Amino acid sequence: MIYSGRILGSSGRVGDLRTNYVDKGKDPLAEREAEQVRAKQTKTIGDVAEAFLKAREGDMKPRSYVECTRHLRKDVKELHGHPIKTVHREARIIWHLAEMALAVSAQ
C-alpha cells in the first residue's frame, strides 16, 4: 500500500520508495547519469537551426541570410532547447488535424 510517498511492506513496516527501488537492484544514480547523457546526445531545434545556417551561408543572398539568421536565432529562440523529435511529432499531429478539417469542409 502506498501512502504519501512511502510504501507499507508486507511486514507492516513503512519503507521509503527509494529504498525499495534500490532493493530491486536498480541504481538511481546510474540511471540519472544515463538520462543526462541521452539528453546531451539528443538533437535540439537549436542544433538543427545552426547546422542549417552553416550549410546555407554561401548559397543565400547576403540580406536573405541575415534575415534568416535573425529569425532562427531570435524569433525561434524559445524553441532551441526542445528535442527535434517532439517538434516532428507535433507537426504530424497538426498536419493530421489540418487534413481532417479539409475533409470536413469539403463535405
Report strand %: 5-15%
Oligomeric composition of the shown chains: single chain
| Cα-based radius of gyration, to the nearest Å | 24 Å
Q: Quickly give the structural class.
A: mainly alpha
What's the total count of β strands? 3
Explain the overall architecture.
This protein is mainly α and 107 residues long. It folds into 2 domains: 2-41, no CATH class; 45-106, no CATH class. It is built from 5 helices and 3 strands. The protein has helices at 17-23, 28-41, 45-56, 62-75, 84-106; strands at residues 2-3, 6-8, 14-16. The longest helix is centred in the C-terminal third of the chain and has 23 residues, at 84-106. It is flat, with a radius of gyration of 24 Å.
Secondary-structure map:
Layout: E1 2-3, E2 6-8, E3 14-16, H1 17-23, H2 28-41, H3 45-56, H4 62-75, H5 84-106
Antiparallel strand pairs: 1-2, 2-3
Outline of this structure?
With 107 residues, the chain is mainly alpha-helical. The chain has five helices and three strands, in the order E-E-E-H-H-H-H-H.
Features:
single chain; 107 residues; mainly alpha; 2 domains; 3-stranded antiparallel beta sheet; 65% helix
